[in-house]
Design a protein that fits this description.
By secondary structure, the chain is α/β, with parallel strands linked by helices. It has an eight-stranded parallel barrel with strand order 1-2-3-4-5-6-7-8, surrounded by six helices. About 40% of the residues are buried. Helix 1 links the parallel strand 1 and strand 2. The protein contains eleven helices and eight strands. It starts with a strand and ends with a helix. It has a single domain, classed as Aldolase class I (TIM Barrel). Helix 7 crosses helix 8. The structure holds cytidine-5'-monophosphate. The site of cytidine-5'-monophosphate has 14 residues, from strand 8 and helix 10.
């Protein structure tokens, strides 16, 4: 992955996606398809986006017994996505099964999709983690622990907030991917995200890829907003 800006296509159906993508005819994008869109439109939506030559992060966060995750990933690999993910809480064996499934399902001559792990969801607070998961460690310790297990399993990186990147880089090296949502051009657009950063802050922290949703998709002029985010992320002066 070449430090992409990933646009989260958080739309309920294909028509809204196609309408959104209209002004981007000449751009080769990296987009994220999540549960909302995939469960409505099915694998066909991946095919349609691929035909436009965009790269795809299929964000389905798999979490099940190793055998089921193996089979599911084998099927997903055939769709030809570039990036997929699992929950690290599923365990090392499950993450290894995910990678084996991806290898088994990747079409001949193609590269297996990269696979990253969700550690603690950014919507989970430390208090919730302690009372609901009975984890006594701090949130940071839990994120680091899951990241280490993911790396041991052979996983390519993690989804994390830009505030955790320095710690992850220090313990897991610079090849381990850090994919960071919660990105805002300015802090008055925080919405429901708890730990946000600007594209510049993410770049300075050493983030591998940023995920931007509403800052682009809900902007009055999405293409202009995309360009502003991209320039800030790539360090290009406007
Ligand atoms: O609109 P916004 O930029 O907040 O969108 C961020 C995207 O990243 C959404 O698709 C959200 O589901 C996703 N995401 C997140 N936090 C995570 C994992 C994924 O915000 N830990």
């Amino acid at each position: 992955m070449n430090n992409p800006l990933i646009i989260a296509l958080d739309f309920p159906n294909k028509n809204e996606v196609l309408q959104f993508l209209n002004p981007f005819q000449d751009e080769k994008l990296f987009v994220k398809v999540g549960m909302e869109l995939f469960y409505q439109e099915g694998p066909q939506i991946i095919q349609e986006i691929k035909e436009k030559e965009h790269q795809i992060f299929l964000d389905l966060k798999l979490h099940d017994i190793p055998n089921t995750v193996y089979s599911a990933m084998k099927g997903l690999a055939k769709l030809g996505c570039d990036l997929v993910n699992v929950h690290a809480a599923g365990g090392k064996e499950m993450m290894m099964a995910a990678l084996e499934g991806l290898e088994a399902g990747t079409n001949a001559g193609e590269k297996r999709p990269s696979c990253i792990a969700v550690t603690q969801l950014t919507s989970t607070s430390e208090q919730q983690m302690k009372s609901e998961q009975l984890i006594e460690a701090t949130l940071q310790e839990s994120v680091l622990h899951y990241s280490l297990i993911a790396q041991e399993a052979g996983i390519d990186g993690v989804v994390c907030s830009s505030h955790e990147v320095a710690m992850i880089r220090q313990h897991l090296g610079k090849e381990f991917l850090t994919v960071t949502p919660g990105i805002r051009l300015n802090y008055d657009l925080v919405q429901d995200q708890k730990r946000v950063a600007t594209p510049e802050e993410a770049r300075n922290a050493g983030v591998s890829a940023i995920v931007v949703g509403r800052g682009i998709t809900k902007a009055e002029e999405p293409f202009k907003s995309y360009q502003a985010y991209k320039q800030a992320w790539e360090g290009v002066r406007v």
